[in-house]
Amino acid sequence: MGPPNTLSREAPTVKISILALLAAGSVVSMVGVTLAGAIGPDVVAFYVANDVAYHGSLEGIGGYAISTTSCNYGDEEADWHGGTNNTPLIGQNAYRLKDGRFEQIGMSWLKHSFCALSESGCGDCQPTDCSTLGIGCADTYGSGLNTNPSGPRSDVNAFTGYYPYPFTVSNSGPSTLRANLQMRNNDVDPALNPGASYYLEAYYVSTDDAPAGNHANNASWREVVFSSISNVNSIGSTEVEEQAIRKWGVEDPTVEIDEAHVPDDGFFIVAAKVTDLGGGMWHYEYAVWNHNCHASGGSFSVPLPASATVANVGFHDVDYHSGEIYDGTDWSSTRVDNTISWSTTPYSENQNANALRWATMYNFRFDANIGPEASQVTIGTFRPGGAPSVTVDTIAPPSEPINPCDLPLGPCPEDVNGDHTVAVDDLLVVLGNYSQCGDGTFRPEGDVNDDCCVTVDDLLQVIAVWNADCTPTGACCMSDGSCVEVSQANCDGDYAGDNVTCASANCPSPGACCYEDGSCDERMPDDCASVGGAYQGAGSDCGTADCPVAGAGDECTSAFLAEMGANPFETHSATASSPQPDDSQCSGTYLDWGNSQDIWFRFVPQQGGSLLFTTCDSSSYDTSMVIYQGDCDNQVACNGDSSNGSNCQAYHSAIEMSVTSGETYYIRIGGWNGEVGSGTLTIE
User: Are 413 and 405 in contact (CB under 8 A)?
Assistant: First the structure.
């Protein structure tokens, strides 16, 4: 594999799973010394998305790839036999948190790993040859190596770690998208997703840590920011051994997260959020993640009394692609007895139906006129032969039938016939049902005072509000970010729906709008885009927004600070620096600077070793690159055209060199014979 990322963060103490120890029947001494082999190999995703590559878009879908670094947390070497089925597979997933919904918006095929480098940086590394990953050692795949992966998810049993090799399915499609982490442009365009947060996840399927019982910690995630469809940058640090779905509960304390373990198989994670919409309605939102259950999910059922009113029933999944054999048909929903259920085509009819399979998350949602309580939901398994279903303790509507008289009345109960005016027709309905009382199965029409009987009190209440206007109102989101509750006819903004309150409407709000000169003001998303600004997200402000100046980094003295991973740049607004670089250090590579407009980066590595500096970016231009050490005059390397990389532009630059921890390096990027454009400097 290619040059590794420098592992610059302080190495954490290697974690030991007590559950894994107990499951293995091991003995731990009173002084904390673990017997060798008690844990076994334990491969985790240690760093995720140190760099993110964008390979372009076709038909509204973008192709991406992320870097991944594994670590062996175990006490035995992990097998890494390239070219066999005894080496890990690496999957990539993408998620979006927006408007109270946490959804999976992308997935990749699986990288078939080879040759573990046993790097330091994640523990007390005991290096081995590349056929195994040493104890406490790391192994890095840059985004380039994780591009166009060859492994289909359909070949894998994530619970046992087994897969056949050679694979039974080959990927297909244009290289921009083929088997890459695919996301729809509309799902990540910041102008269309104000206030959204994004998370990228890596998942390692290892053929020997799964049999050792260490397959519950394979997934890790990291937050990223989309400045545009093509510009993605990681923020924060990797959350090791944690599935991305758990971030929803961190961001929103009202979200309840629970697990369901299938006997002799893997487990699911269920996240639930219930929102009071006002007007006697609640929104139920469920996200269900299959970590490694080979039986997969074939149905999802929520208790819901037959007498309850339901609206806005929905389902969301993520698309398989690139020749994967699974059917993508959405699950259908039904109401039977006291449940609402969603299901895919049964296994007996289609073994490749759209089941909820490993490392995948689906969403289920609806509105109902009944509030939540502690309850259980049911996941039906897809493959036969094991447990047919598992239940999960969570929040849901009550499971028993409800008395309609226990449900709240609407906002204007005196409008009995629903014509939005209290008048003689409403009085006639009350008189027509006079003296009726509910028996637990119905509420009599004309009961406006909520006592479940139609009496003189109801007549008096109708008369008391005679001629009242009962036109429903709801939240109206205004262009300035404010919200008023008015009727739909009187809404001069975006109407969120009848009886929806401003508190639950999630109206867009103003945020910082950055301009090319570095200035900033606060605007709504559409308004910011209309004046050529870059919206920084709902609730952001100019006091904390970091608005870059177009043309910054134009000289070595004002160089951008570069980081490990992807560093976007543009040279359209730059000027030519002097003196010209010395091309004798890279003769034959077509440096041909030609008084090029250029941009400068400053980089200080936190750890010594070999690094790759590359401008590989399929949407970029013909670059030339020079590196200086210590100051702006000490040129140490240059390159015009390189063959190092895949899915790059026609001509890109790349320099692989040894660096010293704490030393300052200046990277100068221009263009062949003065070409200009935009691109990405990736350091890995």
Answer: no
- What is the pLDDT at residue 493? 87
What residue ranges in 467-622 does DSSP mark as E strands?
473-477, 483-487, 494-495, 511-514, 520-523, 534-535, 560-561, 565-570, 599-603, 609-614
Flag the least confident range among 64-68, 95-99, 614-618. 614-618
Query: What is the enclosing helix (H) or strand (E) of 281?
Result: strand 281-290
The whole-angstrom separation of Cα 322 and Cα 328 is 13
| Residues forming a β-bridge with 600 | 668
The Cα 80–Cα 101 span in angstroms is 38
Q: pLDDT tens digit string along 512-567?
A: 787 766 788 888 877 776 787 766 666 677 877 666 554 468 888 878 878 888 88
CB neighbours of residue 440 within 10 Å? 12
Distance CA 455, CA 438 (A): 12
Which residues, including other chains, have CB under 8 Å from residue 621's CB and lie 6 or more apart? 649, 671, 675, 676, 677, 678, 679
The pTM is what? 0.64
**In this structure, what are the phi and psi dihedrals at residue 363, rounded to the nearest 5 degrees?**
-120, 145
* 656 burial level (CB within 10 Å; 0-12, 13-18, 19+): middle
Identify the pLDDT of residue 494: 84
Q: What structural domains does the chain harbor? A: 18-244 (no CATH), 256-396 (2.60.40.290), 473-504 (no CATH), 556-683 (2.60.120.380)
pLDDT per position as a tens digit, 438-493: 988 889 999 999 999 999 999 999 999 999 999 988 889 888 888 999 999 999 98
